[in-house]
Amino acid sequence: MVQGAITYIVNGRRATFLPRTLIWLFPHQEHQLVNRSDNMQFYCLVFKQSLISKACKTAAFEELKHLADRKKAS
Hints:
With 74 residues, the protein is an alpha+beta fold. The chain contains two helices and three strands.
């Protein structure tokens, strides 16, 4: 989030995000934008599973790799 606010429902739970917030949503997570402020500005990046596999080399990222692999298997 750069400015403003957005509200999503993620896996059935309502969450409002404000500036300086980083949100990670995985493809298997159900999410829906339900509200936004008039001045809302945000960026959306999509990371492919192949990039995650190449970039996540240490044990600290094992869970992220497993989540990406889970999407690949479905």
